[in-house]
TrEMBL record:
Keywords (A to Z) from UniProt: Methyltransferase, S-adenosyl-L-methionine, Transferase
Protein name: O-methyltransferase domain-containing protein
Naturally occurring in which organism (per UniProt): Pleodorina starrii
PANTHER family linked to this entry: O-METHYLTRANSFERASE CICE (PTHR43712:SF2), PUTATIVE (AFU_ORTHOLOGUE AFUA_4G14580)-RELATED (PTHR43712)
Domain O-methyltransferase C-terminal: 220-435
GO-annotated molecular function: O-methyltransferase activity; protein dimerization activity
Any one Pfam family match given in the protein's UniProt record, by short name: Methyltransf_2
Gene: PLEST006569
SUPFAM superfamilies in alphabetical order: S-adenosyl-L-methionine-dependent methyltransferases, Winged helix' DNA-binding domain
Acidic residues compositional bias, start-end: 478-492
Domain O-methyltransferase dimerisation intervals: 37-97
GO biological process terms held by the UniProt record: methylation
Region described as Disordered: 127-147, 457-506
Amino acid sequence: MVYSYPGPHIGSRTGAVVRRRAVRTVPADKAAALETLIRGSWAPNAIYSLCRLGVPDALTDDPRDAATAADLAARLHCNAPCLLRLLRLCAAYGLLVEVPRPQNTVRGGGGGGCGIHGSGGGGRGAKGDCAADVSQSTTTDNGAAERSEGTLMQAAAGDINGSGNGSDNGGGGGGCVCREAATSFHLTETGLMLQEEHPSQMNWLALMLGLPGHYVSRGYLYDNVKEVGRMGFEAAFGTDWYSYVGRHPLEAAAFDQAMTATSAAAAGPVAAAYDFSRHATVMDVGGGQGMLMAAILHRHPGVRMGFVMELPSVVAGARRMGQRGLERLQYVEGDFFQPFPPPRVDCIVMRLVLHDWPDAQAAAVLRHARAALAPGPGSRLVVVEAVLPEAVGPGAVEAATLQQLEFDMGMMVMTTGRERSLSEWEALFAASGFRLEALMQPDCAKLPLMVVRPEPEAEVEAAGGEEGGREAAGGEEAGGEEAGGEEAEAEGEPPQPPAPDSVPVP
Ligand SMILES: C[S@@+](CC[C@H](N)C(=O)[O-])C[C@H]1O[C@@H](n2cnc3c(N)ncnc32)[C@H](O)[C@@H]1O
């Protein structure tokens, strides 16, 4: 089936002058596909709501622990009819299983049936599950229960004893068939991952993406593109992301936990993909809490010392958590826009650091990395980042590519950074004294890994240049063990890791 619509007036809103055919016909299947795209999905909002209400932690994947919407609403202090509808959508997404319950457990008894939102009776049914715990429930509209800074809070109290304002399920004196008690729900294996303590930490990812900082700023993509140099996030909130999360601890916690979870998932595959044991010393720059470095050290006993260079506040937090049980791991405070603190190392890793920055800043970080690599042919930089296609040709793109292109929108509205294509990466490396040597796709990892080699000519330039790293920072003058180490390297000996307490704290 095709349908037609007149063309000329379409687009007049933009003021653009375009030549159009008077009438176009559009195949219905293409229109349907486009409509699906335009409508998008409620999934992020639904899963966020499910998590923030606390549903995954109130259930298990055991059908014997299944609970009705009425039960859950009473326990989680939220609106049962609305919850039921949300649970059903999440069941359709494959996160929950909805199971019908026998009729005799569904009817509210004697006094008033399903009083949670009903208008009649007021008393509890003798057996009616839907009336159980009704005294704990509320009759407020959406969002009665608030998860705020990690706790469940009742945001607004409503009528709690069955005489409330709901109208669609109220039971009169003779009991009712209560929709919210007619079925019960348990988690699927996928839904189980949404529990707060699940190692996947998907709960936090769902929270992060559903909270206003992320969700609202998406709505400002147009403003971001239209207004040169203004981030969508700033258009939405009048400030930048880091200032914003400073005032919104739940968003800060969700962001930190979600980042930690994705790092944890990536650590093993990245450590396995590249032979880090070629290097005696490895430094993860912007390495967060050190999960990737810990995985590298576990997998490669040949790496004598692993360093994680981070901002002082991050290092303080990581140190509080201990050294991840590894003597060979050391945190170093530093700012990657300044020459790196010693020691020079044989290999620098950067995961999801450069995409946070526009080209000029990313190149500055890379030049400092170049200067911090030990001289010699064996030194390498390992960059773990998305690689976008050079152009998106006709036909469907892979799901992973689509996700990266969408992620690039997130980078655009929330940061000054960007995802990059291979040629953009190559240009950035070339501008900073590096050359791409290999592009690898680790098994079970989302992001590719780029092995990058320092250019020999740049070595000289980096050492003498304005941003000459440790030299410019007075590293050699500082003398001591580092200076001795460099002399040894210059004579062809492998670089020596410093004693654990010899790394100065800037
Ligand atoms: C997107 S996170 C990536 C963290 C980690 N590499 C990972 O893969 O999960 C960027 C990291 O860069 C760190 N960072 C930001 N600015 C920095 C700076 N100027 N110097 C050092 N680290 C910085 C942040 O603290 C953060 O941990």
